[in-house]
Structures are given as C-alpha cells and as structure tokens.
Amino acid sequence: MEHSTTLVAAILGLLEGLTEFIPVSSTGHILLAGHFLGFDSAGKTFEVVIQLGAVLAILTLYLGQLVSVFRNAPHDPAARRFILSVLIAFLPAVVIGVLAHGFIKDVLFETPMLIASMLILGGVALVLVDRIAPPTTQPDAMSFPLPMALKIGFIQCLAMIPGVSRSGATIVGALMLGASKRAAAEFSFFLSMPTMAGAFAYDLYKNRDVLDGSALGEIAVGFIMAFIAAVIVVKWLLGYVSKHGYALFGWWRIAVGGVALVVLGMGI
C-alpha cells in the first residue's frame, strides 16, 4: 500500500459505503478509483477489509430483527426457513470462491478494461430487468422458497467478476424470480453478511504473508468511512427502490463504465 495516503483511503472507504448495497459494483468502483489514483494494496486486502465496515452497518441496522429470528428459531418454522434460505444462497459462493480465488484476485481484479465493460453490461441488464421483471409473487425477503434462494446464490457468483456487482446480481436474480423490489434489496442485504464476512476471512488467510502492518491506519480510516456511508445508504435505499425501481443505478453504471473505457483507451 505504499502509494496510499489517509485521504485516498478515506475516499475509497466512502466510495465503498456508498456503493456496496446499491447495484453498481462497489468493487468495480473502488478498483477503478484505485487505478486512477495510483493506489495499490498488498493482495488487494484493503479493498476486502473495508467491506466489513459496510457489513457492520447492515448488522447494526438489522440487529434487532436478526436477534428475534435466532431467538425464535427453535420453535418457529418460518424463522428456521429464513436462516436456511440465507445459508443455502451463501453456499455456491463458498465453493466457487474457494476454487477460483487465485484467478479472481490475480487476474480479474487486475483488469480495469474488464471491470469497466462489466459495469456497462450490468447497467444494461439492470435497466432491462427493471422494465421486464415478472409480476411479484414473493413480497417478503424472509419467506423466499429454498429453491429460489439457491438460484439467487448461484446468480450471486457472477459478482466474482469485478464490475458485475454482488448486490446487482442478487437483486436482478431475485426480481426475475418474482421478488418485489424491496424484498430483492432486503434479501441482498441479508445475504451480504455471510458472503462478505466469509470473503474477508478467507482473503485474510490467503494473504497473511503479504499483509503490511503499516497500512492499518489507512484500513481503519477506510473501514470507518465505509460504515458511516453504508448506514446512510441502506436507510435511504429501500424507500427509493420501492417507489422508483433500479433504472437510475443501471444508467449510472453505464455512464461510469463508459467514461472509464474512454479514459483507459487514452492510456491513463
């Protein structure tokens, strides 16, 4: 992380928190911003660790609901089914993430042109799905059928390609499987907790030999900024998408990806 500064770390943390839970690809934004700012971290660990700030924001906002679910699980079939649905949706990411970890981090994370292209393609998909999604049959994120949860889990794995967006993939998948716009976002929130925590733990283990203790200050700054920004975004997002849908985020992706392609084509 030798080219980083506290200011750059704060900017990237803010960017992470603002984009993690909206379907625009936080990883794509951070990697492109890091590329243009000359930022580099050992094993791309900074980019993964600060995601925990966003996870902590979700955990804080939904803590009461989650405590209630786990407290009721021993005697409430609906609570047990919800917990199982999240675990089932998480499972494909565990298997594919472990098997493809080296290729994802060493190749895909180092290809800005791919990231920009995926931003554009994902934006087009989001705009289209926002218009053609089937009628809602699943209005409650806590009662998705288990086969539906598993399908969303496989769709989430597309987000291992930086620029696709984990939240974007899960939201699009849920919408096409009959979820309401609000339920699609909420299930994406719940699924983010084990997915991102698992990615952090595994990435930390894989990069334990290249971690730079001198970068802890920058990581802490990025973590705190990500937490604050994510709390604000999550509170706003559910109300917005319930009324307006996801098209805005699709057009944003297309614009950012297009600008990035032009700038990269200029050799910058």
From TrEMBL:
tRNA-binding listed as a keyword: no
Catalytic activity of the protein: di-trans,octa-cis-undecaprenyl diphosphate + H2O = di-trans,octa-cis-undecaprenyl phosphate + phosphate + H(+)
Entry-linked InterPro entries: UppP
Location (main, coarse): membrane
UniProtKB keywords: Antibiotic resistance, Cell membrane, Cell shape, Cell wall biogenesis/degradation, Hydrolase, Membrane, Peptidoglycan synthesis, Transmembrane, Transmembrane helix
EC number: 3.6.1.27
Bilayer-crossing regions: 49-70, 82-101, 154-177, 183-204, 216-238, 250-267
One function term, GO molecular function aspect: undecaprenyl-diphosphatase activity
Domain of life from the UniProt record: Bacteria
Membrane topology (UniProt): Multi-pass membrane protein
Intracellular or extracellular location(s): Cell membrane
Something else known: Bacitracin is thought to be involved in the inhibition of peptidoglycan synthesis by sequestering undecaprenyl diphosphate, thereby reducing the pool of lipid carrier available.
Protein purpose: Catalyzes the dephosphorylation of undecaprenyl diphosphate (UPP). Confers resistance to bacitracin.
Family: Belongs to the UppP family.
Record NCBIfam families: PRK00281.1-2, undec_PP_bacA
Name of the protein this chain belongs to: Undecaprenyl-diphosphatase
Source organism phylogeny: Bacteria, Pseudomonadati, Pseudomonadota, Alphaproteobacteria, Rhodobacterales
Gene: uppP
